[in-house]
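User: Run a structure prediction on this.
Assistant: Running it now.
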Amino acid sequence: MKRTITAIIALFAMYACGNQNGSAPAASATASETPAAEASANPSYDPNRGEGKYKDFEVPAALDAALAEKGNKVYGVKCSSCHKTTGEKLVGPGWQGVTSRYKAAWIMNFITNTDEMLTKDPKAQAQLEICLVRMPNQNLSDDEARSLYEFMRKNDGVK
């Protein structure tokens, strides 16, 4: 009985964490070498923006409170089960200070192009090695992603 419960929990964790094909995660040595090799082999790669459609993402100095409130709703539905707004790690890393640690384009590419970022971006891969759980693609629209980023800015104290 105990084995059955453990197996069910393990299967649920794999599904919830985006590993839906049941394959084992890549070994950490391979995972940490691959993104760096791909990044250096790709001269157009920019570590400040990562992989995705957001190349230059301009952010106004002042917070858009209405947009941040929409982002709070997106966070509640799609992000809060794995991320805290503090610095504390839950399943994924805490969000406190995230907008000062990463460029806006990198965050936008990570939340809208999660799979490719985790495969190719060294910073995203480093987070995966720390958290040991692959972030599932939440299929955020551009509007949801933009509002979520504004919520992150509000969480980081932008007025």
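The radius of gyration is 17 Å.
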